[in-house]
Design goal:
The chain is an alpha/beta fold. The chain has helices at residues 10-22, 33-42, 59-68, 84-93, 105-119, 152-163, 171-178, 189-201, and strands at 2-6, 26-30, 47-50, 74-79, 97-100, 126-129, 132-135, 140-143, 146-148, 210-213, 217-220. It has a five-stranded parallel beta sheet, with helices on both faces. Helix 1 links the parallel strand 1 (2-6) and strand 2 (26-30). The two termini are 30 Å apart.
């Protein structure tokens, strides 16, 4: 899942981006309101974490312009402004959540996870596809009840495919959502990750849940692969 963090405190930028990346998210960071607006308009994010008091453009104006363009990206305001009036103003302007500084990182992470699930119309943090169960909160995967060890990149790829279960996802979409830095479009990094997932998630003698849709991308589904 890909996040945009718009926060002007370099200390908080560093700690939050590091923590979110460790939790398995691809994170873009900026400390300027205008830059944040440009990034929000040019990239498809799962969640935007937005400070209010920013150089270049106030966070509420960033939020207002994002919503004026018709974007439905989930946005959480992260700010020291803690009055009821501030919270109401933020939510009425179009925020989906509001968290006051100081805060516990675990709470922010839980809110981000909930908003990511909401982006894909999912409420249960556990996704079950066939014999595979994915715990998006605990970042754990099991096959036939037994734990499966995945690398962070493999988990992010699987989570994104599972959120889009039943839909074909292109290589470009996968790259956009799971890599903090753009992957070389000529590389086989996505194909290699998919290959590794298939080996780890396919019981002996059983077909893979991840299907190649030739010329289109990949699909996580129970049905047999198309010809």
């Amino acid at each position: 899942m890909r996040l945009l963090l718009v926060e002007d405190s370099q200390r908080l930028q560093y700690s939050l981006s590091r923590g979110l990346r460790s939790a398995g998210y691809a994170v873009d960071v900026t400390g300027d309101g205008k830059e944040g607006l440009w990034q929000a308009e040019s990239t498809n994010y799962d969640v935007i974490i937005l400070d209010l008091v920013l150089p270049g453009m106030h966070g509420l104006e960033v939020l207002r312009q994002i919503r004026a363009k018709g974007s439905v990206t989930n946005i959480i305001i992260l700010t020291a402004k803690d009055t009821v009036e501030d919270r109401v103003r933020g939510l009425e302007t179009g925020a989906d959540d509001y968290l006051v500084k100081p805060f516990a990182f675990d709470e922010l992470l839980a809110r981000v996870q909930a908003l990511c699930r909401r982006s894909y119309q999912r409420k249960d943090p556990r996704l079950k596809i066939g014999e595979v169960e994915i715990d998006t909160s605990g970042r754990r995967v099991s096959l036939q009840g037994k734990p499966v060890e995945l690398t962070p990149r493999e988990f992010m790829c699987l989570e994104y495919l599972a959120m889009r279960c039943g839909h074909v996802v292109s290589r470009t979409e996968i790259e956009t959502h799971i890599y903090s830095e753009p992957a070389d479009l000529m590389s086989n990094v996505v194909d290699s990750t998919i290959c590794s997932l298939r080996k780890k998630l396919s019981p002996s003698g059983c077909p893979s849940l991840i299907h190649t849709r030739r010329g289109l991308g990949y699909e996580l589904a129970l049905e047999a692969e198309s010809a």
